[in-house]
Amino acid sequence: MAGRRSQAGGKIEVRSERMKAPDERGGVAAAALALVVVIGTLAGAAIFEAADADRYYRSVQEDEALEWATFWAFLGAAALNLGVAFRASRRGVRIPWFPVGVALFCIFVAMEEISWGQRVLGYRPPAYFLEENYQQELNLHNVFSTSLRKGVLKAVILGYGVALPLLARVPTGGRLLSRAGGGAPPLSLAPAFLATWLAYEWYPWSHTGEWVELTLGLGFLFAVLPATETANAPSKSRSRAGRAAAWVALATGGVWALGAAGAAASRLQRSASPEILEAARAEVEMLRRDFLEKRVRTSCGLHKRLYTFVEQYDADALLAGRFVALTERGLPEERAAYFLDPWNSPYWIRDRCERREQRRSVFVYSFGPNRVRDSTHFEIREDDVGAYLRRRPRGDEE
User: Fold this and answer.
1) How far is Cα 350 from Cα 305, in angstroms, rounded to an integer?
2) pLDDT tens digits, one per residue of 239-298
3) Measured between alpha carbons, how far is 192 from 389 in angstroms, rounded to an integer?
4) CB–CB of 72/107 below 8 Å?
5) Residue of 234, 233, 231 lying closest to 245 (CA atoms)
6) Rounded distance, CA 153 to CA 396, Å?
7) Is this model's pTM higher than 0.85 or not?
8) What is the structure's pLDDT at 222?
9) Neighbours of 292 (CB within 10 A)
10) How far is CA 262 from CA 79, 214, 276, in A?
11) pLDDT at residue 144, as a whole number
12) In whole angstroms, how large is the CA radius of gyration of the chain?
């Protein structure tokens, strides 16, 4: 309760006002829908994996709709945060550093998600990233240890989505955020962020982290939607909650639509010249022969980039094989040293088996001209370029 006093006719009149929190002016409906979107996305991923493991596996690969949707969610959040910063500057905030900082963070995450366009453009990253980044891609987050990456992500989820809204409710914290340009998420969105954190902490199915990145991006986006902003202002309209929820639904649909469009564009814009495709086929054949002639052993469940395989499994024999010898016929030395295909993506080795069904498939492969993994656990598929080292289909004898 806040009191405001005015003096009239010698009498003191005390008129009470209740400052409504953002969550009480329509944001609850939007936050409830946001929670449904987050839980629905995570639950849908679990059902998807259980129903069709191969298709699920392909859906979580680079440059598929999921990754592009994550990119657009963070990029959209960045744009809206810059809008918050602009409005704050118009209100007289000298340096709206908080929304600007959040925007820069979202841009960084969005670009890291697509490796700064490396696969889209097909350029070769600097040698440092080829050697130190286990994905051999131009991004910083994969240079650091897995435990550090996970710890930072959990801190961001809880810090931005839960701790910051609580801090904004404290008078001192609220004033500091206001002076910094505002932009704290509504407290009503905290359950959505907590659901995202719980999924990442629990990690109940494979590649949960890919879906968590999407729901986190959506959380950043929902936090600064125009409807959320307008919900923070007094309104006499009872349709405020409906409009706020509609913005959440529209943002979710837009992110997925842009994600699907990004995945389609990634595939359509890439074509392979016959010469490059033939070079890739020749290279995987040399790699196949290297594995067989050098008697390089693999084990069931193995799936590694070739450079990582050589480093971690002491497969130095491959460094003196037929593939590396192709440098004498024009293969760039950097491609040979880091086992990169003609499109500057890593070559891979996979060994997959199902012992109960006596099914096993071992192959070396490249993502091919579209630079997207199309192969399943057991088969080289679509435009991936590869060669089998061993193959025992279901029910067949070797």
Assistant:
1) 9
2) 666 778 888 999 999 999 999 999 888 777 666 688 899 999 999 999 999 999 999 999
3) 46
4) no
5) 231
6) 45
7) no
8) 94
9) 11
10) 18, 15, 24
11) 82
12) 26
Interatomic CA distance for residues 191 and 32, integer angstroms = 9
339 burial type by CB count under 10 A (0-12 exposed, 13-18 middle, 19+ buried)? buried
Supply the pLDDT for residue 227. Answer: 39
Contacts of 272 (CB under 8 A, 6+ apart): 368, 369, 383
The three-class DSSP label of residue 156 is helix
> Where do the structural domains in the chain lie, given as residue ranges?
27-268, 275-392
CA dihedral 109, 115, 117, 122 (to 10 degrees): 180
Residue whose structure tokens are 């990456």: 149
Q: What is the 3-class SS of 269-298, one letter each residue?
A: CCCCCHHHHHHHHHHHHHHHHHHHHCCCCC
Give the CA dihedral 50, 55, 58, 64, nearest 10 degrees.
Answer: -100
| pLDDT tens digits for range 169-214 | 888 888 888 888 777 888 999 999 999 999 999 999 999 999 999 9
3-state secondary structure of 218: helix
CA distance 286 to 304: 18
In one letter, which amino acid is 333? E
Taking 50 as the pLDDT cut, the residues of the chain under it are: 1-25, 227-234, 236, 395-398
Distance (Å, whole) CA 84 – CA 224 = 8
